[in-house]
């Protein structure tokens, strides 16, 4: 006859196996939601190169680029019941050398990012708590009758405002115009002006509740997971922007 410890280990092992199988099936079920309708397009709005300290902790002055861009993206196909949040980013690809014929691998630098949470499910813990707690007696919740009435009134007002408000767009739909980059582009050499063949592109990372992370662009190993990403037209970093005092000094000389 098995001891209590052996029985507990057997039960724990059984439930662990069941949990792993259910988690695997949940992760694979996302393949039933095709994402090939995903689209993203980014275009350059403005760029300038200045010299200074790009960050407050920078030890020296260096050249860095400031970029503004337009972004049109429909990432709503990436959201399904297993999506927790979506990490979207815009990055610039540019030559790592100031020599046009250099064979050095190109550099990539993220200039903007954002986290888009999925729409809360009506079956989530917070939603269920909001529905159940108001109907429980005060002896269990510890909420007085006055406070319960106040919360009920606030809930009714919120529902009325929600009904009267316009429906929000789907999560993942982005329309940005003249968006300023969060992060400046700098180089280890400290020189960035007049670099050639610079392009902007969009990427994303799907973070599920259960399963592996999905990166973009897709590798194509899984069918119907490729999206359409339109990069910006190639451009060059402009010459270093000079201060007015330096420009006036050159003109007077």
Automatic annotation (TrEMBL):
Pfam families: SPC22. It is found in: Endoplasmic reticulum membrane. GO terms for cellular component: signal peptidase complex. Residues 149-169 are annotated as: Disordered. The chain crosses the membrane at residues 12-33. The keyword Transmembrane helix applies. Keywords: Endoplasmic reticulum, Membrane, Signal-anchor, Transmembrane, Transmembrane helix. Residues 156-169 have a biased composition (Basic and acidic residues). One of its GO terms (biological process) is signal peptide processing. The keyword Nucleotidyltransferase does not apply. It is a single-pass type II membrane protein. Essential component of the signal peptidase complex (SPC) which catalyzes the cleavage of N-terminal signal sequences from nascent proteins as they are translocated into the lumen of the endoplasmic reticulum. Essential for the SPC catalytic activity, possibly by stabilizing and positioning the active center of the complex close to the lumenal surface. Essential for viability. Belongs to the SPCS3 family. PANTHER family: MICROSOMAL SIGNAL PEPTIDASE 23 KD SUBUNIT SPC22/23, SIGNAL PEPTIDASE COMPLEX SUBUNIT 3. This is Signal peptidase subunit 3.
């Amino acid at each position: 006859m098995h001891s209590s410890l052996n029985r507990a280990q057997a039960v724990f092992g059984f439930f662990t196996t069941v949990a792993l199988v259910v988690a695997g099936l949940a992760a694979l079920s996302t393949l039933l939601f095709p994402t090939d309708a995903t689209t993203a397009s980014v275009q350059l709005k403005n760029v300038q190169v200045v010299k200074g300290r790009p960050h407050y902790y920078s030890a020296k002055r260096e050249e860095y680029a400031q970029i503004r861009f337009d972004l049109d993206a429909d990432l709503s196909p990436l959201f399904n019941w297993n999506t927790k949040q979506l990490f979207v980013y815009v990055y610039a690809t540019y030559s790592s050398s100031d020599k046009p014929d250099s064979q050095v691998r190109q550099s990539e630098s993220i200039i903007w990012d954002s986290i888009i949470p999925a729409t809360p499910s009506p079956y989530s813990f917070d939603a269920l708590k909001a529905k159940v707690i108001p109907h429980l007696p005060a002896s269990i919740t510890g909420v007085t009758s006055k406070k319960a009435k106040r919360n009920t009134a606030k809930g009714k007002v919120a529902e009325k405002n929600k009904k009267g408000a316009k429906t929000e767009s789907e999560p993942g739909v982005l329309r940005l115009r003249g968006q300023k980059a969060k992060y400046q582009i700098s180089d280890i050499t400290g020189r960035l002006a007049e670099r050639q063949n610079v392009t902007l592109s969009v990427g994303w990372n799907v973070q599920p509740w259960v399963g592996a992370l999905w990166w973009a662009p897709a590798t194509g190993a899984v069918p119907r997971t490729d999206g359409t990403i339109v990069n910006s037209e190639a451009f060059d970093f402009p010459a270093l922007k000079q201060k007015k005092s330096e420009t006036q000094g050159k003109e007077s000389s």
